[in-house]
Amino acid sequence: MTKITAAHETDIRSLVALNNRFAPSGLTLTRTEEFAHHHLPDYRVLRDADGGILGCVALDEYSPSVCELISLAIVPEAHGLGYGRVLINAAVQLATRREYAELFALSYSDELFLSCGFERVPLSVYPEKIARYEKIDRTEIQMGEKHCFRKRLTADADAPPR
Q: Which terminus of the chain, N or C, has fewer Cβ atoms within 10 Å?
């Protein structure tokens, strides 16, 4: 039996280790314990029956109306079990509860995000993302295979693009 919970301070080292396991291959950005501590309320964790961490996801706010889904990571032995979808849905629920209008993500996992109701959009829709990562890690936005996905969270789905 698995369950989604908020992250706790005692989870910080595990969150960072899980996330950073995928950083060398470009699937995630490297995170520090300081980053995880600062974003602790933004993390959701998938736990196994013993409380161990199977996966995590977090939100990163860009404005009061837009946030990014970040740090989506699942332990390798749990890949292919649908946990990515569960974690993405947990992030969508948290973003909706916080009343963001949009949630976006950069990912190689086109099918996963499309199956969770996201649409593929050009990265140029989020100039704030480009500006932030030009300062931090330009490779995050230079990788041609990574795509940008957006999910509108407000009731007005017919709103023009931002």
A: N
Please report, rounded to a whole number, the percentage of residues in the chain having pLDDT higher than 90.
75
DSSP string of 116-141, one letter each residue: TT-EEE-GGG-HHHHHHHHHH-THHH
> In terms of DSSP H, where are the helices of 26-73?
33-38
Q: Which pairing describes strands 53-63 and 102-107: parallel, antiparallel, or unpaired?
A: unpaired
Beta bridge partners of 55: 46, 74
Q: Which domain does 55 fall in, by range? A: 3-152
CATH number at residue 104: 3.40.630.30
pTM of the predicted model as reported, rounded to 2 decimal places: 0.89
pLDDT in tens, 89-103: 999 999 999 999 999
